[in-house]
Amino acid sequence: MSAEILIVDDNADIRNIINELIIDAGYKTRIAANYNQALAEIDKKLPDVAILDVKLDKGDNDGIELLSHIKTKNKDVPVIIISGHANIEMAIKSLHHGAFEFIEKPFDQERLLNFVSRAVENFNLKKQNKEYESKLFSSYDLIGDSKNTINIIDQIKKISLTESRIFIHGPSGSGKELVARKIHKNSLRSKNPFIVLNGALLDSNKYELELFGEEKENGSISYGSLEKANRGTLLIDQISEIPLDIQSKILRVLIDQKFKRVNGNSDVSVDVRLICSSSKDLKKEIQIGNFREDLFHRINVFEINIEPLSQRISDIPLLIKYFSKKISENYNIKELEIDENNSYILNHNWKGNVRELRNLIERIAILQPDTKEKISNIIKESLKKENFNHQIEENSLSVPLKEAREKFEKEYLTIQLKKFNGNISKTANFVGMERSALHRKLKGLGIKEFN
Which whole-number Å values give the CA distances from 48 to 21, 119, 288, in the listed order? Predict the structure, then answer.
């Protein structure tokens, strides 16, 4: 499919020259002769690449305003700025606002075509990467045999076919969006949109625009996340980061089931299932005045809690096998042979949780080591942490031998218990002890057994 280029210039001769040049190169074109026409074209459909004149009919920086408008819609769309009044300050300003290239009038046609070619290539590459990541992400399953993971899988089965609002709590990288996607995929809304709004990534003055959309002076409409998710599911990720005044407006939407776009006068009704998530404890946020209690009760009809990976050690070997197979298939390479009982992996604190583990395995896949030793070296270097025995030895230098031994045994057996999900028989077999001896040892060390 040929790329579509939007050409904006108030000079008809220049506009036609660029248009013919781009069409002869095999691209599709759309043209606009002034600011309002350009705005309407952008709002109607984003182009693959835009060529914008700096000075149109509205003011000296029309092109920069249009550039910023495109970037708020999709920061990946390349924009080439052209100007007949070029200076260094203007070039720097346009690049600062995200322009792909800056070119002066009169321009060299071959140079402009080269810019367009590189811009199309750049856009297609980013688009392909996003599609690949989306496909990869949405194809992932929830993997693990820990109590927490098994419980979440069971919860998803039960709540997917309901219309209940859901709140997902878990640390960064633990899989909150994956859980939300699985709920949507198994719901009656699965064929309709799944839209994600990240409260932590928005500019403070963009929340209303992103949520409710906007009605422009020229009559065009910019749709917000609520309308984009109509008849589907809206995930508000990191809802704890949304300002209190916007929280009150979200609450009003949940109560009234309608809203007004920014600068709009008419009510808009939508049918959206709302899922919210946060890595923060919202009850604590309520206590310190950062989150509305009434909104919390509205969004928290059903709560899913995801534990940190460090508390789900029994999931790690299964995740390693799963990601090794999945990522090897995606990179079309021989399946990675990663020791799922690698002590560096099992004893790492995994602050980045499942995402950090997946990234580690993807890094190994990219480097394509040909021996287990090379894989192990990559793991050591990536995790930047000494192995378990060295860590215990270092932490124990200032205490008596008996105390150091007890500390080692306690940490070692606690990790093994978690690894085998509390199964005494499997743990005893792995550590080389009789069941009864292990029971006595756990009791003597003050380690609480769990089923």
Answer: 17, 9, 46
- For 319-385, CATH gives 1.10.8
Residues listed for the chain: 451
Instruction: Judge whether 4-134 and 146-307 match in fold.
Output: yes
Domain 389-445 sits in CATH 1.25.40: no
Residue pLDDT, tens place only, 181-225: 999 999 999 988 899 998 887 777 788 889 999 887 777 788 899
pLDDT higher than threshold 50 for residue 387: no
CB 315 within 8 A of CB 309: yes
This prediction's pTM: 0.60
Over residues 305-331, the pLDDT tens digits come to 999 999 999 999 999 999 998 888 877
What is residue 168's three-state secondary structure?
A: strand
Task: Write the DSSP string, 282-327.
Answer: HHHHHHTTSS-HHHHHHH-SEEEE---GGG-TTHHHHHHHHHHHHH
Q: Give residue limits of the domains in the chain.
A: 4-134, 146-307, 319-385, 389-445
The yes or no reply on domain 146-307 and CATH 3.40.50.300 is yes
Q: What is the pLDDT of residues 84-117, one digit of tens each?
A: 776 677 778 888 888 999 888 888 899 899 999 9
d(CA 374, CA 382): 12
Each as own residue / partner, the long-range contacts of residues 36-41 (CB below 8 Å, 24 or more positions apart, any chain) are 36/218, 37/8, 38/6, 38/8, 38/62, 38/66, 39/66, 39/69, 39/216, 39/218, 39/220, 40/218, 40/220, 41/6, 41/8
CA distances from 369 to 377, 379, 382 (A): 10, 11, 14
Give the CATH superfamily of 4-134: Response regulator (3.40.50.2300)
